[in-house]
């Protein structure tokens, strides 16, 4: 089907639009609002986690029973980018404020107003690329028969490390966001930091969003957004129309890659991806 491509004889599902420079002209039609919140990531880096944290911050610690897909619009699926075939477009212009959106676009494809009066907020979440690859592998494997990835982890990892996915090379995605980390409308988070100190990071996110919360509410949110607590509401985090499996909450750990990577593959990731971070000040915890 149109959502698939062959790579080294392995079927690769392109369930999201491949990054295309044509998007840029469509993006200018999108009107940002000051109270828009974008959660931006390279896929499998902690999007859902931060979506849930932000939602609870806006709702004073109340846990929603709605699916995360109903609470957030995926920006790529908006009416700006007509998709061939199956998926209906999301009408963003008619959505009430504040609009909660998730997006996997690189920095240059995110709509950003030059005008402070309607400049949205962007929370970028990054995760070490080895764990991202493992998480992504499980994700693509769990698609229905139509989009099934039929390769091994090794196949997938090679496709990932060569930047063949829908969102390009991991380091090309992360670094431009990292460079803008001090812009007042951008907050740069790391998955591994959230894992290590969720309370501190929930407070950071709430301050960034100008939502002042009591220490109790921050502590409550930090507790409710642990992997185990979110897992209790798995149904809220399953992707509809793909499978009923809770694909968005799998293992939730730092360092699971060690169960999948050969020494050689790890070296390849270091040479092609991790080396690109040198001199940028950005580093990751790869777990033990
Ligand atoms: S997606 O499809 O891009 O939106 O996926 P995304 O949500 O970015 O990434 C999914 C991974 O994030 C893990 N996750 C969490 N880890 C720790 N704590 C919490 N609360 C949490 N919520 C989601 C999820 O388990 C996926 O990682 P893996 O390694 O596959 O478990």
Description:
- It contains 11 helices and 7 strands.
- With 288 residues, it is α/β, with parallel strands linked by helices.
- Helices cover 33% and strands 10% of the residues.
- The protein has helices at 23-27, 47-58, 68-71, 129-141, 153-161, 170-179, 191-196, 198-208, 215-224, 227-232, 263-272, and strands at residues 4-7, 10-13, 37-41, 73-74, 100-103, 121-126, 186-190.
- The termini are far apart.
- The longest helix is centred in the middle third of the chain and has 13 residues, at 129-141.
- β1 (4-7) and β2 (10-13) form a beta hairpin.
- The strands form 2 sheets. Strands 4-5-3-6-7 form a 5-stranded parallel sheet, sandwiched between helices.
- Residues 1-11 and 13-17 have low confidence and may be disordered.
- The protein binds 3'-phosphate-adenosine-5'-phosphate sulfate.
Question: Which secondary structure elements does this structure contain, and how are they paired or packed?
Answer:
Layout: E1 4-7, E2 10-13, H1 23-27, E3 37-41, H2 47-58, H3 68-71, E4 73-74, E5 100-103, E6 121-126, H4 129-141, H5 153-161, H6 170-179, E7 186-190, H7 191-196, H8 198-208, H9 215-224, H10 227-232, H11 263-272
Parallel strand pairs: 3-5, 3-6, 4-5, 6-7
Antiparallel strand pairs: 1-2
């Amino acid at each position: 089907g149109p959502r698939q491509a062959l790579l080294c004889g392995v079927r690769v599902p392109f369930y999201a639009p491949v990054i295309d420079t044509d998007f840029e002209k469509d993006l200018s039609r999108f009107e940002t609002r000051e109270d828009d919140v974008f959660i931006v990531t390279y896929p499998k880096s902690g999007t859902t986690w931060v979506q849930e944290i932000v939602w609870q911050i806006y709702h004073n610690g109340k846990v929603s029973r709605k699916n995360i897909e109903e609470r957030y619009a995926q920006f790529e699926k908006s009416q700006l980018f007509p998709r061939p075939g199956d998926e209906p477009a999301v009408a963003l212009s008619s959505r009430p404020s504040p609009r909660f959106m998730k997006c996997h676009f690189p920095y240059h494809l995110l709509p950003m107003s030059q005008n402070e009066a309607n400049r949205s907020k962007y929370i970028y979440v990054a995760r070490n690329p080895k764990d991202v690859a493992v998480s992504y592998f499980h994700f693509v494997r769990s698609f229905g028969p139509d989009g099934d990835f039929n390769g091994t982890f090794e196949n997938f990892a090679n496709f990932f490390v060569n930047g063949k996915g829908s969102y390009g090379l991991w380091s090309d995605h992360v670094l431009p966001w990292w460079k803008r980390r001090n812009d007042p409308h951008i907050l740069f988070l790391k998955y591994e930091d959230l894992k290590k100190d969720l309370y501190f990071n929930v407070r950071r996110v709430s301050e960034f969003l100008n939502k002042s919360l009591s220490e109790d509410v921050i502590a409550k949110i930090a507790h409710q957004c642990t992997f185990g607590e979110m897992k209790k509401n798995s149904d809220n985090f399953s992707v509809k129309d793909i499978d009923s499996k809770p694909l968005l909450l799998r293992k939730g750990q730092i360092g699971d890659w060690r169960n999948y990577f050969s020494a050689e593959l790890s070296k390849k990731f270091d040479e092609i991806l991790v080396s690109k971070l040198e001199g940028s000040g950005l580093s990751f915890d790869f777990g033990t």
